[in-house]
Amino acid sequence: MSLPRVPLRVGVATDVGRVRAHNEDAAYAAGSIYLVADGMGGHAAGEVASALTAHAMGELAQRDDLVVGDLVAQVALANRRILAEAAAAPQHRGMATTLTGIGVVQVGGTAHWAVFNLGDSRVYRYADGQLRQVTVDHSEVQELVDAGLLTPAEAAGHPLRHTVTRSLGRAHLPAVDTWVFPPTPGERFVVCSDGLTGEVGDEDIAALLARTPDPQQAAAALVEAALAAGGRDNVTVVVVAVPDTAGGDLVEDTVPRPLVSGS
User: Fold this and answer.
1) pLDDT for the residue numbered 139
2) Can you give the pTM of this predicted structure?
3) Per-residue DSSP letters for the chain?
4) Which of 54, 135, 190, 243 could form a disulfide linkage to 28, CB 3.0–4.6 angstroms apart?
5) Residues of the chain with pLDDT > 70: what percent?
6) Is the dihedral of CA 199, 201, 206, 207 positive or negative?
């Protein structure tokens, strides 16, 4: 027997910021896939890497039979496409991208969330008035925090805070972090590039979500908050909301929002 399909509400917003010349972020938000990729590399090559990654992961969006292994395999496919493009176009050599997001996967015949991550873009879960970072940053600073050599407050202003230790665009793809858990009625997720978290603290993100229940309005407000705080990087935000009465399979029930990027 098929389970009832639960409509998700989704919002997406992005901005080049107040300093950068190009927006090297990309996002995909439709069907079974919700992600942000933050490109890295000179001569705007980062936007090529992030776009390739978003397109590759988006190829899974219409599938309702995904398992975690499918997501990991698709990340590997995206990495191969980045390497192939870099080999074919000298101006794109060295390009890379972070990737973070959530997918709808099947576990024991029921829909679950699968969070996936490489790099320092983040997924947050907001439920019962509490904001929790699901992903763990793959950065030099996070490793120092984990080792007890820096406090989180010291890490926020550390010069190595933007040095990423895992990303796509490497000959040997690092391990992809994944977390799997069932959906909860009323929960919301924020999927974002570090253009948000580098400017807006967790307490302010939580406060904004508390007063802005609509996902599109929340995504736009979070981007505006990052711009108001300085906008020193590209900023992209995807907000995914599960209705309060959710129960059963998850299905995206808004206008599809495929690749989002800009210059």
Assistant:
1) 79
2) 0.90
3) -PPPEEEEEEEEEEE--SS-SSEEEEEEEETTEEEEEEEE-TTTHHHHHHHHHHHHHHTTTT-S---HHHHHHHHHHHHHHHHHHHHH-GGGTT-EE-EEEEEEEEETTEEEEEEEEESS-EEEEEETTEEEE-S---BHHHHHHHTTSS-HHHHHT-TTTT-BS--BS-SSPPPPEEEEE---TT-EEEEE-HHHHTTS-HHHHHHHHHH--SHHHHHHHHHHHHHHTT--S-EEEEEEE--TT--SEEEE-S--EEEEEE-
4) 54
5) 81
6) negative
